Amino acid sequence: MKLSYYPGCSLHSTAAEFSASTEAVFRHLGVELQELEDWCCCGATSGHSLNSYLSHALPLHNLILAEAAGEDLLVPCAACYNSLKAAQAFMAAGSQEALELNEWADQALGRQYQGGAKVRHVIDMLADPTMQGLLEGRLKPVLNGLPLAAYYGCLLTRPPKVASFEANPEQPQLMDRLLARCGATPVAWSHKNECCGASLAIPQPQVVVELVRKIVAAARRAGAKAIVTACPLCQTNLDSRQVNGEEALPVFFITEIIGLALGLNATPWLKKHLVDPRPLLQQQGLRAVS
Amino acid sequence: MAAQQVIPSPRLVLVIEKASGQPVSRCYQCHKCTGGCPVTGFMDLMPHQVVRYVQLGLEEDLLKSKTIWQCAACRTCISRCPNGIDIAAINDALKQRTLARGVQPALPAVAAFHQAFLNSIKGKGRVHELGMMIAFKMKTGSYFQDVLLGLQMFRRGKLRLLPEGLKNRERFRALWQGEKEGQR
Predict the structure, then answer these.
(1) Each residue of A241-288: pLDDT tens digit?
(2) Residue B112 and residue A200: Cβ atoms within 8 Å?
(3) Domain that holds residue A44
(4) Rounded (10°) CA dihedral A213, A215, A219, A220
(5) What residues of chain A lie within 8 A of the CB of B166, using their CB?
(6) What are phi and psi of B96, to 5 degrees?
(7) What is this model's ipTM?
(8) What CATH number does residue A174 fall under?
């Protein structure tokens, strides 16, 4: 199996371990990831905040590249995933602006968007029957019952009609199921898809500190020993903005946990975290983690 | 505002419905949006009020409000709205109108951040996080905020010193230019 791969800006920088663990997991399962040649930034929150044209044109640039490559597009970043899905919905609605954008893209890139590119988030992909088949027998329940809070954040499930691949976007389950297969105990908790504040962390850190405090307190209340995310902004905010007196909870990427359960060497990824998760894993009997 | 007599004007609602693509007129003020919004504690207008103010045409209050900049675009409101209204998209249309009219944003740091972010993409096609943060700090004077955190991230190899760029920058710039060339 072969997939096109769109890491996005964060995965080349602040969330390098999300990219490294995603690539390692898929490679281990025999899936070839071909990074999209010359991908551009999706525009993220700033794009749609200040410039409607760019909020569609930037993801469209990448959708057109993906269509030319011909494979499904794997996207680990929840924000990139959401931008791509929103651009697809915008194009599918077929407004005058969408038609004009497509004509302009044709002139600029030499190719129109035809609506064929399939965008898959990492969780969506791992929950796919084909991938479940590849994981069968390979995932080991190495986490020995470790209670983990699966944190989905905003952009994987909202707006539901545009973005969600979950049966119930208010109660997403796919990450919980993956964690259970790795031997963890996913906790039932209240803040699964509450917002962390995302990019407000830079202009308004005090807002993010407050939102993170509530999310972490909820995870703790439910008995979780760590939080698991599938978004580079959620991970960065939760990993860097816990300031309460108690010991901070480690914050994993889902692909790091899958990598551990596949027996891959997770140390280079885990070393990048601000809250070091290695002592917790060692306590849990994972001696290979150093 | 509440003490004054409001004479509703339908002008703003037409403009914002078009700019945001949202059916603002459908709102019947059930307040579910405000009930679920994670950042109401930092807002001056509640999300349901933003929609009502647009319906009534209270443009000045909206363009001067913190709320339109405070919105985290988490989309909880549209997920629960019985009328399918995306208030984040309305806030985006209002932010753009604020800047287009030369009104001073009520949360200038948020506006400066978004501008620094887009400038960072414009040059090379990808965001250079370190460069973008430095540009943001120069603009807002927040030189010391998060410096320790930045150093921690740098030590762990999470911040690249040099920006990455696209190889085919011409084609990217041509697409970027479409904004001006098109009908907008």
Answers:
(1) 998 667 899 999 999 999 999 999 999 999 999 999 999 999 999 877
(2) no
(3) 2-122
(4) 10
(5) 38, 40
(6) -65, -35
(7) 0.94
(8) 3.40.50.11810
